Amino acid sequence: MDPLEEATVNITYPSEPVHRTEYDDREDLSFVVIDAVAIASGSSHAEIGPLNDVLGPEALCDLFAPRTNGQGRSGGVISFHLDGYRVVIDAATREVRVYE
Predict the structure, then answer these.
(1) pLDDT one-digit tens code per residue, 53-66
(2) Is residue 40 within 8 Å of residue 22, measured between CB atoms?
(3) Domain ranges of the chain
(4) Which pTM does this prediction carry?
(5) How would you class 76 by CB atoms within 10 Å of its CB: exposed for 0-12, middle for 13-18, buried for 19 or more?
(6) Contacts by 70-78 with C-beta closer than 8 Å and gap 24+?
(7) Contacts of 31 (CB under 8 A, 6+ apart)
(8) Which domain of life is it from (predicted)?
Protein backbone atom coordinates (compact mmCIF):
# COMPACT_ATOMS: atom_id res chain seq x y z
CA MET A 1 0.00 0.00 0.00
CA ASP A 2 1.16 3.53 -0.80
CA PRO A 3 2.36 5.23 2.45
CA LEU A 4 0.67 8.48 1.41
CA GLU A 5 -2.69 6.72 1.44
CA GLU A 6 -2.23 5.75 5.08
CA ALA A 7 -1.42 9.25 6.32
CA THR A 8 -4.06 11.82 7.19
CA VAL A 9 -3.00 15.44 7.23
CA ASN A 10 -5.25 18.33 8.17
CA ILE A 11 -3.92 21.72 7.19
CA THR A 12 -5.97 24.74 8.12
CA TYR A 13 -5.49 28.35 7.10
CA PRO A 14 -7.11 31.44 8.60
CA SER A 15 -8.46 32.65 5.27
CA GLU A 16 -9.79 31.44 1.97
CA PRO A 17 -7.30 31.03 -0.85
CA VAL A 18 -6.89 33.99 -3.18
CA HIS A 19 -6.80 31.52 -6.07
CA ARG A 20 -7.74 27.89 -6.45
CA THR A 21 -7.38 25.66 -9.50
CA GLU A 22 -7.82 21.98 -10.21
CA TYR A 23 -5.20 19.94 -12.05
CA ASP A 24 -5.09 16.56 -13.74
CA ASP A 25 -2.40 14.01 -14.53
CA ARG A 26 -1.96 15.31 -18.08
CA GLU A 27 -0.71 18.70 -16.88
CA ASP A 28 2.79 19.62 -15.79
CA LEU A 29 2.16 20.48 -12.14
CA SER A 30 5.03 22.97 -12.02
CA PHE A 31 3.33 25.00 -14.78
CA VAL A 32 0.01 24.83 -12.91
CA VAL A 33 1.73 26.24 -9.81
CA ILE A 34 3.37 29.11 -11.73
CA ASP A 35 0.06 29.89 -13.44
CA ALA A 36 -1.83 29.87 -10.12
CA VAL A 37 0.64 32.25 -8.44
CA ALA A 38 0.65 34.52 -11.50
CA ILE A 39 -3.15 34.74 -11.41
CA ALA A 40 -3.20 35.32 -7.64
CA SER A 41 -0.60 38.08 -7.84
CA GLY A 42 -1.77 39.66 -11.07
CA SER A 43 1.69 39.12 -12.53
CA SER A 44 2.94 37.57 -15.72
CA HIS A 45 4.46 34.11 -15.64
CA ALA A 46 7.88 35.64 -16.32
CA GLU A 47 7.62 37.75 -13.15
CA ILE A 48 7.14 34.74 -10.86
CA GLY A 49 10.37 33.69 -9.14
CA PRO A 50 11.91 30.47 -10.36
CA LEU A 51 10.28 27.42 -8.86
CA ASN A 52 13.79 25.93 -8.73
CA ASP A 53 14.59 28.36 -5.91
CA VAL A 54 11.95 26.63 -3.77
CA LEU A 55 11.89 23.01 -4.96
CA GLY A 56 12.72 20.92 -8.00
CA PRO A 57 9.94 21.09 -10.62
CA GLU A 58 10.61 17.51 -11.74
CA ALA A 59 10.48 16.28 -8.14
CA LEU A 60 7.18 18.09 -7.64
CA CYS A 61 5.71 16.48 -10.76
CA ASP A 62 7.03 13.05 -9.73
CA LEU A 63 5.55 13.40 -6.24
CA PHE A 64 2.02 13.83 -7.60
CA ALA A 65 2.34 11.70 -10.74
CA PRO A 66 0.22 8.58 -11.12
CA ARG A 67 1.59 5.45 -9.50
CA THR A 68 3.43 2.88 -11.60
CA ASN A 69 0.15 0.99 -12.12
CA GLY A 70 -1.36 4.13 -13.71
CA GLN A 71 -3.74 4.98 -10.86
CA GLY A 72 -3.75 8.57 -9.63
CA ARG A 73 -2.58 9.52 -6.17
CA SER A 74 -5.44 9.62 -3.69
CA GLY A 75 -3.58 11.47 -0.95
CA GLY A 76 -0.65 13.68 -0.18
CA VAL A 77 -0.24 17.38 0.52
CA ILE A 78 2.69 19.70 0.07
CA SER A 79 2.92 23.33 1.13
CA PHE A 80 5.62 25.87 0.28
CA HIS A 81 6.14 29.61 -0.28
CA LEU A 82 6.63 31.15 -3.71
CA ASP A 83 6.87 34.91 -4.32
CA GLY A 84 5.32 35.73 -0.96
CA TYR A 85 2.37 33.35 -1.38
CA ARG A 86 1.76 30.03 0.33
CA VAL A 87 1.05 27.34 -2.24
CA VAL A 88 -0.75 24.16 -1.17
CA ILE A 89 -1.06 21.18 -3.48
CA ASP A 90 -3.55 18.54 -2.38
CA ALA A 91 -3.67 15.22 -4.22
CA ALA A 92 -6.97 14.21 -2.59
CA THR A 93 -8.84 17.23 -3.99
CA ARG A 94 -6.58 17.59 -7.08
CA GLU A 95 -6.20 21.29 -6.26
CA VAL A 96 -3.53 23.94 -6.17
CA ARG A 97 -4.51 26.64 -3.68
CA VAL A 98 -2.70 29.96 -3.26
CA TYR A 99 -2.91 31.95 -0.01
CA GLU A 100 -1.67 35.45 0.85
Answers:
(1) 999 999 988 888 88
(2) no
(3) 16-99
(4) 0.81
(5) middle
(6) 72/25, 73/2, 73/4, 74/2, 74/4, 74/5, 75/2, 75/4, 75/5, 75/7, 75/8, 76/4, 76/7, 77/9, 77/11
(7) none
(8) Archaea
